[in-house]
Amino acid sequence: MIEMQYVWIRNYESPRTIAAHQHTCYEFIYYLKGDGTGICGENKYQYEPGTFVLVQPNETHGETHRSMTSMISVGFRSTETFTPAQSHCLKDVNSEIFGLIQAVRHEFKQKHAYYQQYIENLIGNILIRILRRTSNITAQKQDNIDYAISYIKEYYMSAIDMSELARSTGYCDDHFRIVFKKKTGLSPKEFILETRLNAAKKLLADPAVNLTDISTQCGYEYYSQFSLFFKKKTGMSPSEFRDTVLTNQNK
């Protein structure tokens, strides 16, 4: 979670030195005009228009301007830690950050409804772009199985097109089944049935929910289908399971 602290547009008309200082929050500095040198932690850097620095909380930083300098500084706090692999001044390649920082500037000036939340989303976008550029970490397809698991947990009561689910996570059908089972210990179909079973058990523990409704909520159009599935998995009919659970609860 990102929480904006300030947006500061600074214009220095003549060369000057900004003494080394610290902030308790992150500070993102984007240089619009001018040139000079700076220090960020132990790193010294040269800045020019279209360069930027991400200063860590409590990190010492300062600048010496050689010419008239204009910059935008954005202070923010975050529940996550953002530490780029390269902490020195970076060049805004293709001006991808410039558009975002200009949007921050505009929102802060105009203060439209929900402007703070909008700016915080823009800051998050900026940070992701910096981390992608400076990190050697690449996305792993294995992680996409987590999305498939989350989808199944939300839609287990519906008919799920496994081929479509496989494609949405970047796999062919066969490879999807292999990777899914490696991750969960179950095939996708088995995982759906297990999820339905667990949901049914939870619902059966509530005597206020009738059996037909439980059948529907677990993805079965007919109670007879649900009952057959449940008994095959547990050795008990849904009503027998409910009686057993309620009896144990009352002991």
Question: What's the quick description here?
Answer:
The protein contains 9 helices and 9 strands. With 251 residues, the chain is of the alpha+beta class. The protein has a 5-stranded antiparallel sheet, covered by helices on one side. The protein has a 4-stranded antiparallel sheet with strand order 2-7-4-5, with no helix packed on it.
Task: Describe the overall structure.
The protein has 251 residues and is α+β, with helices and mostly antiparallel strands. The protein has two domains: 2-134, Regulatory protein AraC (Jelly Rolls), CATH 2.60.120; 142-242, Orthogonal Bundle (Arc Repressor Mutant, subunit A). It contains nine helices and nine strands. The protein has helices at 96-110, 115-134, 144-155, 162-168, 173-184, 188-204, 211-217, 223-234, 238-249; strands at residues 2-12, 17-21, 26-33, 36-40, 43-47, 51-55, 61-65, 69-78, 90-91. It has a five-stranded antiparallel sheet with strand order 1-8-3-6-9, covered by helices on one side. A hairpin with a 2-residue loop joins β4 (36-40) and β5. α4 (162-168) packs across α5 (173-184). The longest helix is centred in the middle third of the chain and has 20 residues, at 115-134. The radius of gyration is 28 Å and the shape is elongated.
Rg over alpha carbons: 28 Å
Structural class: alpha+beta
Give the mean pLDDT: 92
Order of helices and strands: EEEEEEEEEHHHHHHHHH
Total strand segments: 9
